[in-house]
Model the fold of this input.
Amino acid sequence: MLPASHRWVLRRRKTVMAKAWGGRFQQETDPRVEAFTESVSFDSRLYAVDIRGSQAHATMLAKVGLISEDECSQICSELTKIGEEIEAGDFQYSAELEDIHMHIESALTERLGDTGRKLHTGRSRNDQVSTDLKLYVRDAIDELDALLLDVQRSLVDRCDQDADVIVPGYTHLQRAQPVKAAHYWLAYCEKFQRDRDRLADCRKRVNVCPLGAAALAGTSLPIDREMTAKLLGFDSVAGNSLDVSSDRDYLAEFVFALSLISAHLSTWCEEWIIWFSTEFSFLKLPDAYTTGSSIMPQKRNPDVLELIRGKTARVMASVPQLLILVKSLPMAYNRDLQEDKLAMFDAFDTVKACLELTPAIVAGAELRREQIASRLEDGFLDATALMEYLIKQGVPMRTGHETVGKLVAHCEGKGCRLADLSLEELQQACDLIDENVYGVLGTQNAMAALQSYGSGGEQPVADRVAAWKERVG
Ligand code: ARG
Done:
């Protein structure tokens, strides 16, 4: 029997050695510290990219001779099995092992002994976690791009079916000028296109490989960083190991791109919530995407749109969350950075869920043509067209603006529309007006008169619809 003190050492060693960093520690970690510092509860979703990264790393280690080919193939196939077990839900997590990286490595070592203990050669969790995050964000960007394309398609698909509909365009939520309904749909296409472009731009900085920067200073071992980068589909290798350890710029950029997607979605939701109101009555929403009230039997509420609008708050909050996280952090890695994932995952999940619902709502909604048409002559939507007619007749713009302003006031006094005025009344305001003026008065004519590139008129919108069809297929 071992002396009591020795037994204690063995027990201690066993527990302490379970931790990959346990070598220099004399005391067990307080379980509350383990619970406080663990990240596996939220980073386990990195398991697939972690395994991809480790397999590439092992392949490189074998090529440069730091492990044998046989060890490499054992490591790679065991990692695949571990991945399958995690996927199937047959994997045991424990706070003691901190994060997903330690879990996978310790499972590997349990199965392969010393061979497993070689995997972490020439890398650290600091470059590993950033590699994992970049692989994850790269996939996320590709997924979001496809979802945004679906949204764009749903908007473009509406253009033909709504080709005959004119709607008021607003500024300050006051009636301004008439546009084709399709002009609204394509306005959202433009916004979502910028979101796609922004994600593509962010992807360039995401796609620079951190792996091999090791803890902060690189390594004395003869690793081949170009090779791992290539195996993982990165465009290039990050050039400064200190920078790699501390860099989370790509996450801040990514969540900012997510926030603008959310901003665009929230504008769309807000607009449709207003359009769905009895006061506007521009829109019918599909039953499947509205909900009722528990007390008011007549209610049909646009809850999904409200929630997409509401969820914008948490997506946008991820931007300051990440910026505050990295502000003033000294180089290189600091444990603070573990918190980066919480902000990013939540923002990503939220935007993804919103984008997944959007195409069906866009496709399922119907414009209430008669309601829209019945009030289309209200609000002097043709006033700007009349002013532009005067400009074409040689009237200086500011004079034309004032003349039309006076005519509008005159109509308001009489309770009529500009198109209801007689030629004499119009000529009293400006003697350059002739009978052709009736060709621009009225909402339909005012819309048809719009002809500049990108405007809401008949032909310019038709041109853009054709261009968007070409673009989104
Ligand atoms: N779980 C850690 C994180 O997410 C991994 C890196 C840990 N590195 C370290 N030196 N403790 O940031």
